[in-house]
What we know:
Elements: E1 2-4, H1 5-8, E2 10-13, E3 31-34, E4 39-40, E5 43-44, E6 50-52, H2 54-58, E7 70-73, E8 81-83, E9 90-93, E10 97-101, H3 110-118, H4 120-131, H5 141-144, E11 148-150, H6 154-193, E12 213-216, E13 221-224, E14 228-231, E15 238-240, E16 248-249, E17 254-257, E18 262-263, E19 266-267, E20 273-275, H7 277-287, E21 294-297, E22 305-307, E23 316-317, E24 320-323, H8 332-340, H9 342-347, E25 352-353, E26 359-360, H10 362-366, E27 369-372, H11 374-413, H12 419-425, H13 427-431
Parallel strand pairs: 3-9, 17-23
Antiparallel strand pairs: 1-11, 2-10, 3-6, 4-5, 7-8, 7-10, 12-13, 14-27, 15-24, 16-20, 17-20, 18-19, 21-22, 21-24, 25-26
Amino acid sequence: MKINIGRDLYLKGRIGWKGLSKDEYLDEGKYRIINGYSLREGYIDWSIAGYITKERYLESPEIMLKNGDILISKDGTIGKVGIVKNLNCQATVASGIFVLRNIVPEKLDTEYLFQYLKSNNFKNFINGVKAEGSTINHLYQRDLIKLEIEVPSVIYQRKITSILLALDNKIELNNKMNDELESIAKTLYDYWFVQFDFPDANGKPYKSSGGKMVWNETLKREIPEGWEVKKLSSLVEVKDGTHDSPKYISDEGYPLITSKNLKKTGIDFTETNRISKFDFDLINQRSKVDTGDILFSMIGNIGTVYKIEEEIINFAIKNVALFKTSSNPVIKNYLFQYLHGYDMQRYVPNVISGSIQKFIALGSLRNTPILFKKAIIEEFNNISFSIYSKLKNNLRQNQELAQLRDWLLPMLMNGQITVGEAEVKIGMVAEEGVEYKKR
């Protein structure tokens, strides 16, 4: 049986003349709006969703959100999907988002549809639509009418989604655990390196116990006596990615990571351009990324920080700063926090260049002033080691789970493996804590 996305389901978007400008967004309110920024890969980030007036919400009843609605981005980064769950407010979407609603539940399981739209099947469809003409990144409603999904029985759909949801649930659980671990690590860092209440020689909090503080002109604040402020480049090698524009090739090449691909949650490979092995090797002669290094976005959304924990690295970088902390692992976790922290937030706005496209120069990053006290940094590394080890293990497990899920998804949907065979594949993962229940 086939389901046509554009004809058999409820598909609506905001009418063009009802679009909202940024100055219409409110600081708070009862009515929420989801735009392309708050629609993330697989979910909706309500923490950054906007607010609008009641009048603006009521003028478009056809896109008032309900639980189970699937949102699809149709402008900019097209094809991002998220599903509305646990909706506890009245909400709508901006002009760059489609609302897709399942109105044939007797034929199609909503979660199965959502999983399909996250798969490479849908990404390949979008790439095919883009290849047909327009150079503008835009997905039209008439495009989705071309998309037909071959679906098995609803009972079998639900068996498939139970397996995929088990993996998604474990990934989400690990992400929540990592959020808590990162919060603990940040609290420890702030306590030691912002408030300066690290343990003194007697095990008491330094500043609160009367530890001597001295004014530092570079940082424009007091720091503990005996501490230094150094240039970052004196502690770790600072490089950047290629300045060239290598020729992009098919999906079989190596990903070229730019600033836009660095996200808070990691590297987004969904929209990376691909390069040849020749260019990959050439770029890596200049700026090879190793496990334990730190990446920092230099253009556009400046200051996104990502620590490389992957053991296998098959990408190169462009417009991204590279801190070679792999060669100085003791400083790695301290520098990771410092790049997010108080002093860096004060420093970066003063050295940003560019009138249209903002960027931070490599020289400015090399000259970044950084607090330094070797013994305290080493002690911070020792105490936080277990926190970062758990973070790293969860991250790597999530990468393995995501790879397994992404492999199973098309195989199950195309009938290349059965549900029973998939259950065997995830058996070992399930024993490690994936909650899996047959529906």
